[in-house]
Amino acid sequence: MFVQCTQKGASSVLLLTLLCCILPPPAQASKSSEDIRCKCICPPYRNISGHIYNKNVSQKDCNCLHVVEPMPVPGNDVEAYCLLCECKYEERSTTTIKVIIIIYLSVVGALLLYMAFLVLVDPLIRKPDAYTQPLHNEEENEDTRSLAAAPTPSGARANTVLERVEGAQQRWKRQVQEQRKTVFDRHKMLS
């Protein structure tokens, strides 16, 4: 209980610290130059290859004349060149992006801490259940009968999840083999 409260308190303090470091104060909350831009895509024109121009300008100045610098065509072709260019004003919130990344990393970190907690502490806390113990004893008896020829490592029953899964997989493979034998034997007997 105390460990969980400590972990929750530590993760909330860490999140608050990260937010204070990354987020700008309210006085700086206006759009920064990286949050707004005008993007002009100009296709090939005569002997000039196509190009993409980006510039931080206001929305009213988002046109070819203000964004495309240096102008690749001489003065009398500027108007024709600018008519071909497609300019779009783009806005994004880097603050929102930062907050979402922090939340995502916090959730992943909390899940990793929880996984480590379960891996380290769960085997110590777990007690045998009175209801499931007879079921496990039946499985163990069945396994010992069927695996009398195959020795188990160090004579102990599998305690880890991986060993239990491997044991179940081996039992399933034996059952499939037995089913195959009976099907093929019956098939031979019928023909």
Q: Which word captures the global form? A: elongated
Low-confidence stretches: 25-29
Helix count equals: 6
Task: Bin the strand percentage.
Answer: 5-15%
Strand order of the largest sheet: 2-1-3
Compute the average pLDDT: 76
> What is the tally of beta strands?
3
* Separation of the first and last Cα atoms: 68 Å
Main beta-sheet annotation: 3 strands, antiparallel
Helix/strand-derived category reads: mainly alpha
Helical residues, percent: 55-70%
Quick structural gist:
The chain has 191 residues and is mainly alpha-helical. It has helices spanning 2-22, 64-67, 78-84, 94-125, 132-146, 161-190, and strands at residues 36-42, 51-55, 86-91.
Describe this structure in words.
By secondary structure, the chain is mainly α. 57% of the residues lie in helices and 9% in strands. The protein contains six helices and three strands; from the N terminus they run H-E-E-H-H-E-H-H-H. It has helices spanning 2-22, 64-67, 78-84, 94-125, 132-146, 161-190, and strands spanning 36-42, 51-55, 86-91. It has a three-stranded antiparallel β-sheet, with helices on one face. The radius of gyration is 34 Å and the shape is elongated. The model is unreliable at 25-29 (pLDDT under 50).
Name the features.
three-stranded antiparallel sheet; mainly alpha; 191 residues; 57% helix
Task: Give the secondary structure arrangement, pairings included.
Layout: H1 2-22, E1 36-42, E2 51-55, H2 64-67, H3 78-84, E3 86-91, H4 94-125, H5 132-146, H6 161-190
Antiparallel strand pairs: 1-2, 1-3
Helix pairs in contact: 1-4
